[in-house]
Amino acid sequence: MRASDEEHYTEYVTTRLPALRRVAYLLCGDSHRADDIVQNAITRLYVHWRKAQSADNLDAYVRTTVVRTFLNEQRTGWFSRTRVVDEPPEGMVRDRDVETSHVLHAALRRVPPRQRAVLVLRFLYDMSVTEVAGALRCSEGNVKSQTSHGLATLRKQLGEHTLSLLGGR
Q1: Which domains does the chain have, with CATH numbers?
Q2: CB of 44 closer than 8 Å to CB of 65
Q3: The pTM is what?
Q4: How does pLDDT run across 21-35, given as a tens digit for each residue?
């Protein structure tokens, strides 16, 4: 990699690291594992930096790399499924009630990984069905189905907390 490319890569990764950690944390629910996912993703990004720079939307390209890294990790199963109580990365809990945030994150962790990825991309990153389908390399129908099943699972996990999370609706 040329020195100027490496400088641009370093600058980009440095500024985007907190956002990448947030998406990884939302996917896996463990800040240490999120760091591992991000590390693997930015290593892949380094290898493919020239291609990544030519992408129409670099942030979307890198976010997709993080999601695919998470999903690949889920398939290979190298990580430990033991969960330790973990705090979200800095900046993750904003104006929301802390208890509500913990309940929501715990419920999201119990949604199957592919559905979780779809929910995070669709609702937290406001990506369209078409964009998510492209990021996950699947059909739009699959994204719609995963969204429906993921929301149903999330509602089931939340149970009594659903009304309070939705503002009493």
Answers
A1: 1-81 (1.10.1740), 93-169 (1.10.10.10)
A2: yes
A3: 0.68
A4: 999 999 988 889 999
